Amino acid sequence: MIRWFSTRSLRFKLVLASVLVEVLLLALLVANSHRLIDSSLREQALLRITELGPLLNAALAAPLAEHDLATLNEILHESRNREGLVYLVLLDARGQVVASSGWRVGTALPPLDDNLDEDRDSPDRFDTETPIILAGQRYGVLRYGVATGFLREARATLLQQNIAIAATEVALSVLLLSLLGLWLTRHLSHLATASRQVAEGKLDVSLPVYTRDEVGELTAAFNTMSAAVRRQITQLQQEQARLNHLLSAMNIGILFEDGRNRVMYFNPAFRRIWRIPDGLDLTGRTTQEVLSRSANVLARPDHFSKHILQVVGTREVSETFEIVLADGRVLTQLSYPVRDTDGRFIGRLWIYEDVTRERQTAEQLIYLAERDSLTGLYNRHRFQEELARLLAESERRKTRGALLFFDLDEFKYINDTFGHRAGDAMLIRVAGEVGALVRRNESLARLGGDEFAIVVPEADEGEVVQLAERVIRAISQIPFRFEQQNLRLTTSLGIAFYPEHGDNAEELVAHADAAMYQAKEAGKNAWRVYRPDRDGTREMLGRLSWQERIASALDKGWFRLHFQGVYRAADGTLSHLEALVRMVDETDPSRVIMPGHFIGYAEKSGKIRDIDRWVIAESVRLLARAPQLPLLAVNISGRSFDDPGLPHYIADTLAGHRVAPARLMVELTETSAVTDLHDAQRFIEALRHTGCSVCLDDFGTGFSSFAYLKHLRADVLKIDGLFIRDLPNDRDNQVFVKSIVDVARGMSKITIAEFVEDAETLEMLKRFGVDMVQGYHLDMPRDNHPAVTGQSG
After folding, report:
1. Lower Cβ count inside 10 Å, N or C end of the chain?
2. How many domains, the chain?
3. 754: which residues sit within 8 A by CB, 6+ positions away?
4. Domain for residue 505, yes or no?
């Protein structure tokens, strides 16, 4: 009953409550009226009975005293008919019946009634008596019965009338209360209807406010609430749309499951990574069932299942787990528990990523980190590792090791005469021929330019000599033809043994290098084992001569700066200049010596630091003289990384000439930076504090190409010219250059491509998105560059 009542409308409840109250009040009123009417009727009957006694006494006293029976009977009959008496029996003083009317003589008279209650023996009459007295003398008693049935009829009639009046009043009240309830609750009904519509998702509901009472305030509050809900839902829908688009655009697979391991959400990348058919609805299925529909085949299903059980059982963040597929692809899986605001576990988020390409890239980077990009041989960095391993193993096992150094005779002449492409082709061919001669436990490396080295562990002198002879013979037999000319290539090779010729890497390298020059003195196309007694050769004297010439040029001011423009690839406008150092030949001032002739000697002697400081000072002076020159780039040697005073020198020089640091760019070769990574990091950070920008030159030649970018905070990447020279015809170089540009753009770095020698290469670089270009196709290095003379003049 209570549940039924609670489901009724407010209007029904109001009317019902009002009717019940009114019925109760009317019932009390009818009962009270009935009581009052009954009391009044009894009083009237008693009054009538009281009045009948004297009247009957007056009528009967005289005839009874005279014993006039006829008159007595006549009076009794008339009184019975006229007064509505049921019966009359007149008794004399002796109790003998004298006369009667309506009562059979001989029948016992009923007992006298004390009151008019309905529980009398004869409820339809009242039995009483009155004495017959005349002149104070009692002559007899009159027994009679007064009819009282009219009292019951009167009561019933009046009760029916009261009930009819009450029913009419209740009906009118119900009608009036229903109308009143309808009027009072009509706005509440509208509110209820509107609330149901909002609950059903119809959010554009707004009700008019007709009154200023509580209902009106409630309606206004509902409108405010509805508008707020619409705004919140709109914002949530927009946020959900943004989130869905974000998750859909991600290449990372996202899967959310509830606490019962059933799928609640997944993004397209998840379906794509696991190769699940598009038509299959995944929502509501268990994760295990979803993955069972995958077209992927696991290489180790048991391993994967065991990991899943461990993750699900802990309800903690999982470690990254690698899933190896049968087709060679590699997926990573990571899991996060999802909890509500109260910390209760409500599900789990699974993140999947296909890292196959990244792994391949990483392997390629590792390959590039230790390989020469032109020949595919080990580079200088890997050579140093192999040499260190040779020394350690030889020391531990007490064995002998050997180091072979060789370069190509007259390679510089061929390179300068026929161009870099001819030189590169020659180096590649040499690497292939010599690589075929090296055994598996031996290491062949290209150290740079035309210099090569072979590390031989557990070396037998006879076998090492045979290897040297095979190398020299193989190189001399390589046929070369350029521009209708047949060329014969030869090599000079030096051998140094551990521990006879050196017990550390520096000594071993120096003596193998010296033995190579001893072979050149012997007429080239030869090999020599290091001999200390021949170390004071003409070549060593030549090296000492170069050191003296460099020192003399610093003292006498024979160094010069030439400038080459760096242009914006998009529109071909000049971005800045690069300062290139040259040395004037003291014996012939009209001849300029290129840096390739003296930089190597300067680095070995340590004079390169003085050259670096001269280049910086001269460049800053030029910037001060030419305030409109936007920016000038200068090259710094790797030997300057361990010079802690150089950044301060740069800052002081700029401040002394009042040149903004942003107008000076410092270029560092990546090979040097990788070799001395920690020193390079400190040096670059110090440079950045001066306000100068930093460029990583020759980018792409070593491991720093990608993996070390996060350690070396360079602003600009200058792509090594080795990848640019034959770019239109080399698919591998195109892929690598494009990758460099993409990575640089993602890290907000500027890219420069050097050695741009033709229009086809320039157009391809533009398509790749390279920011700036530099090379002979655009202009040649010169001391009187228009950007310098025009602004200085």
Report:
1. N
2. 4
3. 718, 719, 720, 721, 724, 773, 774, 775
4. yes
